Amino acid sequence: MTPLSRRAFVTAGAASLLVSCGGHRTGDDRGTTAHPASTPTPPTAATPRPSRSSANTARTLGRSVPVRLRIPAIGVDTPVMQLGLAADGSAQVPPITAHDRAGWYRHSPTPGQTGPSVILGHVTVGAYGDGVFRHLARLRRGERIVARLENGTTATFAVDAVRTVSKADFPADAVYGNVGRPEVRLITCGGPRTGDDYRDNVIVFASLNSASP
Hints:
The protein has 213 residues and is mainly β. The protein has three helices and ten strands; from the N terminus they run H-E-H-E-E-E-E-E-E-E-H-E-E. The model is unreliable at 1-7 and 22-56 (pLDDT under 50).
């Protein structure tokens, strides 16, 4: 990443994401944003983790934007939009619309590059009902996540872990810290709901298993 994109990536990493997963706004194409309670402190870069056997034969890919995401085990097949930073320096999330989509945070690596590629999605979309990541917490170790890239390549990841964590204790280092292999992070809301919001985040950690044209 360039120094500018790395700063943006770290800024978003210090905030809890998808605060408005249960919101009732409609027709807003600007997206909703996370609002950190204080000026974020950049997380300390984590020591790159060794590759597991499932990722040893997968080649690292060049940068290419994801355009579609499939998760067969939970019935996800969604276009992928690009997300940036809001005016307050927090990460954007997909807009609340009837045709809910996942969104790739464009200051993170693309799927298949070395590092954690971050993809966000809603669990609910207000009056429209269920969101694209409504069943994310049901994923289990070893299940597939398939990202179709703009250059025609398909990158297939295997789930390593699924965690539900309080937004107040969002694990920025684990989600955004350096890793020595291609990985993805899928993030949505979860846990108890209060009004338009959820207490927790559901985070899926997955590593690259294979890539094909």
